[in-house]
Amino acid sequence: MNTFHVELSPSIWLDLSLLTMLVLVAIAMLRSRHLFAVVMLSGIYSLLSAAFFVSLDAVDVAFTEAAVGAGVSTVLMLGGMLLTARREKPKGAGRAPVALAVVFAAGAALVYATIDMPAFGDPNAPANSHVGQAYVEQTPNDIAVPNIVTAVLASYRGFDTLGEVMVIFTAGVAVMLLLGAGSVRGGREVSDVEKDESGAA
Amino acid sequence: MDHLILKVTTKLLFAPIILFALYVQFHGDYGPGGGFQAGVIFAVAFFLHAFCFGLAETKKVLPQKALTIAMVAGLMFYAGTGVATQLLGGNFLAYTEIDPESTHHAGQHYGILLVEWGVGVTVASTMLTIFYHFTGREPDIDQEDW
C-alpha cells in the first residue's frame, strides 16, 4: 500500500488561518459578559466554520452551517436573550484551575489521538475506502443524481433522514409545549398566539 | 420603530429570498442544498419580515395554526412517500417502485424530490414555530434596551 503525503499547499495556510480565527472568536466569546456581543460572535463563529467547510470541499455542510448556524440560531439566541438578562452575571474564579486542568488533559488526549489519524485526503483512509467509495461508485448506477450527498441523504439513508425530520418536529412540539399558549410567567399573564390573533383582528 | 430603509430593503429582498429557497429546494439533486437548507432560508424571509414590521404583522401572513398543520403535513408527506412505495410493492422508501419501468432511475428522482419537499415543509414551519414562541412572549423592546 502506498503511503500518502500531504504537501504544504496554499489551501493549508487558508485552513490554518480560518482555524486561528475560530479560536480567537471563541476566546472573545469567553471573555465577553455582554450577551448581545456573545450571540453576534457565535454567528461569526458559524460563518467562519462554514468558510472552513467550503475549503474542505464539504459544500452541503457549509451551506447548512451558514443557514442554520449563522442565520437561524443567531436569531433564536437573540429571541432567547430577550427572555433573560442582557449581561452574564460576574462569577468568581472558584474552581477555574480544576476546570482548566481537565480541559487541557482532554485536549492533550485528543491531540495525541490525531497522531494515529490518516492524513487529510488519504485515499486509503477507512472513511474513503469502504462505504464512502461504495457510494461514489454506485450512485451513478443506482440513482443517477449528480449530487451524491443528496443521493445518500434522501435515498440510501432515507430512513435516517426521516428520523432527522422527526427530531426537528419533536423540537418544535417541545418548544410549543414549554413556551406555548396560555402560560403564566412571573405572575403576569403572557399573551399567547390565539389572543394575539383576536387582538389584531 | 420606524426604519424606512430597512423596511424598503426587506420588501425588496423578501421575494428573492423565497425564490432562492425554492431553487435550493428543487435543485438539491444537482447542487448543494436540499430540504433542510431550503426550509431554513424560507423561514429566514419571514424572520426578516417580523423584524421590520413586527411579529403581529407576520402572524397575519402566516398564522401559527397554519404552521402547526404544515409541521405535521411535512412529516406525514415524507412518511407517506415511504408507505406509498410499500403499497406499490417495494420496501419502505424504495423509490424505484414509483417508476420501475424507467431506464434512467426516474423513480429515484421523483422519490428524492417528494421526501425533500416533506423535509422542507417541516423544517420551515418548525423554525418559524420556534421563532414565534421565543419572540412572541415579550412585548417589542426599545432600541436602547439592547
Give a verbal description of the structure.
The complex is a heterodimer of chains A (201) and B (146). By secondary structure, chain A is an all-alpha fold. Chain A has nine helices and two strands, in the order ααααααααββα. The longest helix of chain A has 24 residues, at 59-82. Chain B is an all-alpha fold and 146 residues long. Classes of the chains: A mainly alpha (201), B mainly alpha (146). Chains A and B meet through helix 3, helix 7, helix 8 and helix 9 of A and helix 2, helix 3, helix 4 and helix 5 of B.
**Strand order across the biggest sheet of chain A?**
1-2
Low-confidence spans of chain B: none
The largest β sheet of chain B comes out as:
none
Please compute the radius of gyration of chain A using only Cα atoms: 23 Å
| Structure annotation, total helices of chain B | 5
Range of strand content of chain B = under 5%
The gist of it:
The complex is a heterodimer of chains A (201) and B (146). Chain A has 201 residues and is mainly alpha-helical.
Entry keywords:
heterodimer; A: 201 residues; mainly alpha; two-stranded antiparallel ribbon; 2 strands; 70% helix; B: 146 residues; 5 helices
Question: What topology does this entry show?
Answer:
The complex is a heterodimer of chains A (201) and B (146).
Chain A (H helix, E strand, L loop, with lengths): L9 H22 L3 H21 L3 H24 L13 H19 L11 H4 L1 H12 L5 H9 L1 H22 L4 E2 L2 E2 L3 H8 L1
Antiparallel strand pairs in A: 1-2
Helix pairs in contact in A: 1-2, 2-3, 7-8
Chain B lengths: L3 H23 L8 H19 L1 H7 L2 H24 L18 H30 L11
